[in-house]
Amino acid sequence: MIIIGVFGGTGSGKTTIVNQIVSDFNASDIQVISQDAYYKDNSNITYDARCLLNFDHPEAIDFELLYQHLSALKNGETIEQPVYNFKTHNRTDKTLEISPKKILILEGILIMNYPKLRSLLDLKVFIDTNSDMRMERRVNRDISERGRTPKEVMDRYINTLKPMHDQFIEPMKIHADMVIENHENASINLDILIAKIKSLMS
Predict the structure, then answer these.
(1) Is residue 56 within 8 Å of residue 162, measured between CB atoms?
(2) Is the pTM value of this prediction over 0.85?
(3) What H or E segment, with its residue span, contains residue 14?
(4) What structural domains and CATH numbers belong to the chain?
Protein backbone atom coordinates (compact mmCIF):
# COMPACT_ATOMS: atom_id res chain seq x y z
CA MET A 1 0.00 0.00 0.00
CA ILE A 2 1.16 3.51 -0.89
CA ILE A 3 0.18 6.21 1.61
CA ILE A 4 0.08 9.80 0.39
CA GLY A 5 -0.28 12.70 2.80
CA VAL A 6 -2.02 15.80 1.46
CA PHE A 7 -1.83 18.78 3.80
CA GLY A 8 -2.07 22.56 3.86
CA GLY A 9 -4.03 25.36 5.48
CA THR A 10 -7.76 25.32 6.01
CA GLY A 11 -9.52 26.22 2.76
CA SER A 12 -6.41 25.59 0.66
CA GLY A 13 -8.28 23.25 -1.66
CA LYS A 14 -7.03 19.92 -0.29
CA THR A 15 -10.35 18.14 -0.77
CA THR A 16 -10.69 19.38 -4.36
CA ILE A 17 -7.16 18.24 -5.20
CA VAL A 18 -7.75 14.88 -3.52
CA ASN A 19 -10.99 14.36 -5.47
CA GLN A 20 -9.16 15.10 -8.71
CA ILE A 21 -6.49 12.54 -7.82
CA VAL A 22 -9.11 9.92 -6.94
CA SER A 23 -10.92 10.45 -10.25
CA ASP A 24 -7.74 9.42 -12.11
CA PHE A 25 -7.67 5.93 -10.57
CA ASN A 26 -10.01 2.96 -10.33
CA ALA A 27 -12.24 3.21 -7.27
CA SER A 28 -11.14 -0.29 -6.26
CA ASP A 29 -7.51 0.89 -6.01
CA ILE A 30 -7.76 4.12 -3.99
CA GLN A 31 -9.37 5.45 -0.83
CA VAL A 32 -9.27 8.59 1.29
CA ILE A 33 -9.07 9.05 5.05
CA SER A 34 -9.57 12.50 6.54
CA GLN A 35 -7.78 13.67 9.65
CA ASP A 36 -11.11 15.26 10.64
CA ALA A 37 -12.59 11.82 11.42
CA TYR A 38 -10.03 11.52 14.21
CA TYR A 39 -10.92 14.48 16.37
CA LYS A 40 -10.81 13.29 19.96
CA ASP A 41 -13.94 12.00 21.66
CA ASN A 42 -15.19 14.82 23.90
CA SER A 43 -18.29 13.13 25.30
CA ASN A 44 -17.07 13.89 28.81
CA ILE A 45 -17.74 17.63 28.47
CA THR A 46 -20.83 19.68 27.61
CA TYR A 47 -21.72 21.00 24.17
CA ASP A 48 -21.00 24.58 25.32
CA ALA A 49 -17.56 23.50 26.53
CA ARG A 50 -16.88 21.69 23.24
CA CYS A 51 -17.71 24.89 21.34
CA LEU A 52 -14.79 26.58 23.09
CA LEU A 53 -12.22 23.93 22.14
CA ASN A 54 -9.43 24.79 19.71
CA PHE A 55 -9.96 22.26 16.92
CA ASP A 56 -7.03 23.64 14.90
CA HIS A 57 -4.42 22.65 17.48
CA PRO A 58 -2.63 19.27 17.20
CA GLU A 59 -3.92 18.38 20.68
CA ALA A 60 -7.45 18.16 19.22
CA ILE A 61 -6.53 15.14 17.09
CA ASP A 62 -6.31 11.54 18.28
CA PHE A 63 -3.09 11.02 16.35
CA GLU A 64 -2.21 7.77 18.10
CA LEU A 65 -5.46 6.12 16.95
CA LEU A 66 -4.92 7.47 13.43
CA TYR A 67 -1.37 6.10 13.45
CA GLN A 68 -2.59 2.69 14.66
CA HIS A 69 -5.27 2.59 11.97
CA LEU A 70 -2.88 3.50 9.15
CA SER A 71 -0.39 0.92 10.41
CA ALA A 72 -3.13 -1.71 10.46
CA LEU A 73 -4.20 -0.89 6.91
CA LYS A 74 -0.59 -1.05 5.77
CA ASN A 75 -0.44 -4.53 7.33
CA GLY A 76 -3.51 -5.65 5.37
CA GLU A 77 -6.02 -5.32 8.21
CA THR A 78 -9.49 -3.75 8.16
CA ILE A 79 -10.22 -0.84 10.51
CA GLU A 80 -13.28 0.81 12.07
CA GLN A 81 -12.84 4.52 11.41
CA PRO A 82 -14.59 6.94 13.79
CA VAL A 83 -17.41 9.10 12.44
CA TYR A 84 -17.35 12.74 13.59
CA ASN A 85 -20.28 15.18 13.79
CA PHE A 86 -19.20 18.79 13.18
CA LYS A 87 -22.48 20.24 14.44
CA THR A 88 -22.21 18.60 17.87
CA HIS A 89 -18.39 18.88 17.94
CA ASN A 90 -18.09 15.24 18.88
CA ARG A 91 -17.71 11.68 17.67
CA THR A 92 -20.84 9.69 17.00
CA ASP A 93 -21.35 6.11 18.16
CA LYS A 94 -20.99 4.92 14.56
CA THR A 95 -17.88 3.70 12.75
CA LEU A 96 -16.98 3.20 9.10
CA GLU A 97 -15.35 -0.06 8.02
CA ILE A 98 -12.34 0.54 5.79
CA SER A 99 -10.33 -2.19 4.09
CA PRO A 100 -6.85 -1.84 2.56
CA LYS A 101 -6.45 -0.70 -1.05
CA LYS A 102 -3.40 -0.07 -3.22
CA ILE A 103 -3.41 3.69 -2.58
CA LEU A 104 -4.45 5.53 0.56
CA ILE A 105 -4.65 9.31 0.68
CA LEU A 106 -4.52 10.86 4.14
CA GLU A 107 -5.83 14.42 4.05
CA GLY A 108 -5.74 17.06 6.79
CA ILE A 109 -4.26 20.31 8.03
CA LEU A 110 -2.21 18.82 10.88
CA ILE A 111 -1.07 15.41 9.64
CA MET A 112 2.60 16.45 9.55
CA ASN A 113 2.62 17.38 13.24
CA TYR A 114 2.90 13.79 14.49
CA PRO A 115 6.31 12.32 13.58
CA LYS A 116 5.21 8.67 13.88
CA LEU A 117 2.39 9.33 11.43
CA ARG A 118 4.69 11.25 9.11
CA SER A 119 7.01 8.25 8.97
CA LEU A 120 4.25 6.13 7.38
CA LEU A 121 3.82 8.46 4.40
CA ASP A 122 5.41 7.52 1.08
CA LEU A 123 4.68 10.93 -0.46
CA LYS A 124 3.94 14.22 1.30
CA VAL A 125 2.15 16.96 -0.66
CA PHE A 126 1.59 20.52 0.56
CA ILE A 127 -1.26 22.52 -1.01
CA ASP A 128 -0.22 26.18 -1.01
CA THR A 129 -2.94 28.83 -1.36
CA ASN A 130 -2.94 32.53 -0.45
CA SER A 131 -4.56 33.47 2.85
CA ASP A 132 -7.40 35.56 1.39
CA MET A 133 -8.61 32.69 -0.76
CA ARG A 134 -8.31 30.24 2.13
CA MET A 135 -10.34 32.51 4.41
CA GLU A 136 -13.11 32.94 1.83
CA ARG A 137 -13.38 29.18 1.29
CA ARG A 138 -13.40 28.44 5.02
CA VAL A 139 -16.13 31.00 5.71
CA ASN A 140 -18.34 29.67 2.90
CA ARG A 141 -17.83 26.03 3.94
CA ASP A 142 -18.47 26.48 7.64
CA ILE A 143 -21.66 28.46 7.03
CA SER A 144 -23.11 26.10 4.41
CA GLU A 145 -21.87 22.72 5.66
CA ARG A 146 -21.26 23.04 9.38
CA GLY A 147 -24.06 25.29 10.56
CA ARG A 148 -21.86 28.18 11.73
CA THR A 149 -22.84 31.87 11.67
CA PRO A 150 -20.74 34.38 9.66
CA LYS A 151 -19.62 36.13 12.87
CA GLU A 152 -18.66 32.84 14.49
CA VAL A 153 -16.59 31.84 11.47
CA MET A 154 -14.81 35.20 11.15
CA ASP A 155 -14.03 35.37 14.87
CA ARG A 156 -12.66 31.84 14.75
CA TYR A 157 -10.52 32.61 11.71
CA ILE A 158 -8.94 35.72 13.23
CA ASN A 159 -8.49 34.40 16.77
CA THR A 160 -7.72 30.74 16.11
CA LEU A 161 -7.28 29.60 12.52
CA LYS A 162 -4.68 32.12 11.38
CA PRO A 163 -2.50 31.84 14.52
CA MET A 164 -2.67 28.03 14.37
CA HIS A 165 -1.78 28.08 10.67
CA ASP A 166 1.26 30.23 11.32
CA GLN A 167 2.36 28.08 14.27
CA PHE A 168 1.58 24.52 13.20
CA ILE A 169 0.84 24.27 9.47
CA GLU A 170 3.08 26.61 7.48
CA PRO A 171 6.26 25.40 9.29
CA MET A 172 5.45 21.80 8.26
CA LYS A 173 5.88 22.75 4.61
CA ILE A 174 9.56 21.82 4.99
CA HIS A 175 8.52 18.15 5.16
CA ALA A 176 6.74 18.23 1.78
CA ASP A 177 8.11 16.16 -1.09
CA MET A 178 6.01 18.28 -3.44
CA VAL A 179 4.25 21.65 -3.22
CA ILE A 180 1.18 22.37 -5.34
CA GLU A 181 0.53 26.08 -5.81
CA ASN A 182 -3.26 26.00 -5.96
CA HIS A 183 -3.86 28.73 -8.53
CA GLU A 184 -3.40 29.01 -12.29
CA ASN A 185 -0.76 26.27 -12.56
CA ALA A 186 -2.52 23.80 -10.29
CA SER A 187 -3.56 21.48 -13.13
CA ILE A 188 0.04 21.14 -14.35
CA ASN A 189 1.26 20.37 -10.84
CA LEU A 190 -1.59 17.90 -10.38
CA ASP A 191 -0.58 16.02 -13.54
CA ILE A 192 2.97 15.76 -12.18
CA LEU A 193 1.65 14.47 -8.85
CA ILE A 194 -0.55 11.82 -10.48
CA ALA A 195 2.39 10.67 -12.60
CA LYS A 196 4.49 10.42 -9.43
CA ILE A 197 1.84 8.29 -7.71
CA LYS A 198 1.66 5.96 -10.70
CA SER A 199 5.44 5.62 -10.69
CA LEU A 200 5.33 4.63 -7.00
CA MET A 201 2.78 1.93 -7.85
CA SER A 202 4.94 0.35 -10.53
Answers:
(1) no
(2) yes
(3) helix 14-22
(4) 2-201 (3.40.50.300)
